[in-house]
Amino acid sequence: MRITEAAKRLGMSPRMLRYREALGLLPPVRERGAHRRFGEEELAAVAQGVELEKRFDVSPAELAFALRVLSEPSVAQAVRDLGLRIGRLQAPRRALDFEKEKALRLLTQNRGQASNRT
């Protein structure tokens, strides 16, 4: 079906549907250079995106960026770095750090038990 009919079925304007397509929120066009035809798969994808936007109170642009973070490692790393810098994320603990902390806890406990005996 054409964009006008698809937009009508989804309860949005053709312009909003084109905007979502420009953001990358629709499956890619199957044939290179072909005009987009909307089938049930495309309609379901748009409906799922709209549902996520409503559920998490985000805009289509925010949802498109979240997909970039998930699909582009360099974007994910840049966002992770920002999260660490502003304190929204914590750096992953290395196994060696965990073992060191565990050993220090055991030493502290053993010292406490030794001082109780004297």
UniProtKB/TrEMBL annotation:
<feature type="domain" description="HTH merR-type">
    <location>
        <begin position="1"/>
        <end position="48"/>
    </location>
</feature>
<protein>
    <submittedName>
        <fullName>DNA-binding transcriptional MerR regulator</fullName>
    </submittedName>
</protein>
<dbReference type="GO" id="GO:0006355">
    <property type="term" value="P:regulation of DNA-templated transcription"/>
</dbReference>
<dbReference type="Pfam" id="PF00376">
    <property type="entry name" value="MerR"/>
</dbReference>
<dbReference type="InterPro" id="IPR009061">
    <property type="entry name" value="DNA-bd_dom_put_sf"/>
</dbReference>
<dbReference type="InterPro" id="IPR000551">
    <property type="entry name" value="MerR-type_HTH_dom"/>
</dbReference>
<dbReference type="GO" id="GO:0003677">
    <property type="term" value="F:DNA binding"/>
</dbReference>
<keyword id="KW-0238">DNA-binding</keyword>
